Amino acid sequence: MAAGAEQGIIVAVARETAPGERRVAASPETCKKLTALGARVRVQRGAGMAAGFTDDAYAGAGAQLADDTVATLEGADVVLCVQPPAAATLTTLKTGAVLVGMLAPEADAARSDAIVSRGLVAFPLERLPRTTRAQAMDILSSQAGMAGYKATLIAAQLAPRFFPMLTTAAGTIRPSKVLVIGAGVAGLQAIATARRLGAQVEGFDVRPETREQIESLGGKFLDLGVSAAGEGGYARQLTDEERALQQQRLGEHLKTVDVIVCTAAVPGRPAPKIVTAAMVAGMKPGSVIVDLAAETGGNCELTRAGETIDSANGVTVAGPINLASMGAVHASEMYARNLLNFVSLFVKDGAIAFDWNDELLAKTVWPTSVQPSPHGAFGKGG
């Protein structure tokens, strides 16, 4: 082995094991850039195949290939992942190793215990502050964009109608009327996608300031006459009377809608219930609801995560899960760049150095007790 080949920390990327997960936490592009930071990158064989990245592409980018998960993670200083590794896997990591990805440590006691017992420095990027500087590292936004896109395509596939207006020898077909609930990143992408498919699109959000964003994409803002405008750009809690009025008006409006794409979510909390069973019962037979929030309980009362059901009155309700994984190539490219940008905050010249005065590190790390001082540093071997 050439002199100096052992210099630099090891950044490891193992194959994802969660059922249906096709994404990967590093691309050949980001492997090359991690190597430029002085890191040695180790990738498990086949880790990127489902996302369109071959082992040869990783090797060509300077990554070392390992045959299995154990060999990949052995001695790793930094572990990049999409879904959180199993608790049993976490217990095999070296003490003090850095873990970066969508980790949800508090959602699983065994996982959180393993992180604490091994003294791991975990960065659940779903905790990343939503600031301008953090946008290039924002995994929630990058993956939500793909999820909104795929949710709309699923809706178009399930709908027994054309989305666009068509003039045919058999007469004119009117465009489908699509309502997107929630105007975050996923909702805005869903609006844009439905418009590209030729549908007549409306967007609904409790935050009235989203009107401009919805209209900029060619959608119509659905105004139910109840404003939840609060301070600092956040929605305020509606009164019981306001909520009842909003629900009544929404229910009446849904009788005219062909397709609903639900995207409303609250980070760290169950999805808000917006479409009631009574509303579904009032919709036209053949209508379709695709609930992107299915994994956190759904925006529709009838949603079942991972299932597509037909209601008693002929309305189809789909609750697809892990939608971003359906677009694994571009979702992985974006996710890998998010992780690279975050890792670049603390990996420099082949060593790990944490600046705990940096809010992006200090507010993302879990548990927060790992912050030893304003400046903590780990070199090779950590």
UniProtKB/TrEMBL annotation:
InterPro entries from the UniProt entry: Ala_DH/PNT_CS2, AlaDH/PNT_N, AlaDH/PNT_NAD(H)-bd, NAD(P)-bd_dom_sf
EC number(s) given by UniProt: 7.1.1.1
Keyword Ribosomal protein among UniProt keywords: no
Keywords: NAD, NADP, Nucleotide-binding, Translocase
Catalytic activity line of the entry: NAD(+) + NADPH + H(+)(in) = NADH + NADP(+) + H(+)(out)
Domain Alanine dehydrogenase/pyridine nucleotide transhydrogenase NAD(H)-binding: 156-319
Domain Alanine dehydrogenase/pyridine nucleotide transhydrogenase N-terminal: 12-147
Keyword Lyase applies: no
SMART domains associated with the record: AlaDh_PNT_C, AlaDh_PNT_N
Protein family according to the UniProt entry: Belongs to the AlaDH/PNT family.
Function description: The transhydrogenation between NADH and NADP is coupled to respiration and ATP hydrolysis and functions as a proton pump across the membrane.
Stored PANTHER family: NAD(P) TRANSHYDROGENASE, PROTON-TRANSLOCATING NAD(P)(+) TRANSHYDROGENASE
UniProt protein name: proton-translocating NAD(P)(+) transhydrogenase
Species name: Lysobacter yangpyeongensis
